[in-house]
Amino acid sequence: MEVNDPKIIVALDYANAADAINMVEQLDPKLCRVKVGKELFTRTGPSFVEQLVKRDFQVFLDLKFHDIPNTVAGACAAAADLGVWMVNVHASGGRRMMEVARERLEKYSSRPYLIAVTILTSLSQREIEEVGYSGETAKNVLALAELTHESGLDGVVCSPLEAGLVRNEIADDFLLITPGVRPRTAKKDDQTRVMTPADALQAGSNYLVIGRPITAAVEPLEALREIQAEIDAVGR
Ligand code: C5P
Known about the structure:
The chain is of the alpha/beta class. It contains eleven helices and eight strands. Helices cover 44% and strands 16% of the residues. Cytidine-5'-monophosphate binds next to strand 8.
């Protein structure tokens, strides 16, 4: 089995390199990409990301940079030097931060996708208001997605339930990356607002971040293949 432009990004939510490598050895870079987040990166460092790249995995470095423009641009350049496929920032870092980061990546002949997080889906309505946003969350998410697009970035991370809204308002080539995806037969774990892979792709999502339904499966590669089959069945 081999797919062109795999849609599945497997979240490597591990606290050490050995567990993450053990999982990666059971996966197939022709079928999926992998995501390295803050915990694994802080424990294992850039050399671990390089190991993944050497194993032919395309890596989404999910470090959600948020700082002054020059610092974020430098961090994005460091990610590009590691050879990652995708890197992200917080849209609330502002237009100039995003533009400067994007400009820095222009210098690479083959640069990573640069995407933004809008509003963390873990925040409750009250917490969102506490940090200064007012009005409907969906409206704020859309405004930040529009700012991301205007700043020249490639896309945003969003809930699959927001994907349709963003897709209707922003150009088709703007990437939507969605976690909160559960195959029909899987447990929800601690995710509450979930969609199936096929439904998320139909709502306009381009890539699906999936962790436990694959990483906690007895046969991760088999679980990955089954989800891919679910995607193939809807012709994506
Ligand atoms: O195991 P599961 O499929 O729930 O993992 C989802 C991954 O996506 C985790 O790495 C989680 O941190 C990330 N994520 C999420 N919800 C968001 C943003 C990121 O689940 N809103």
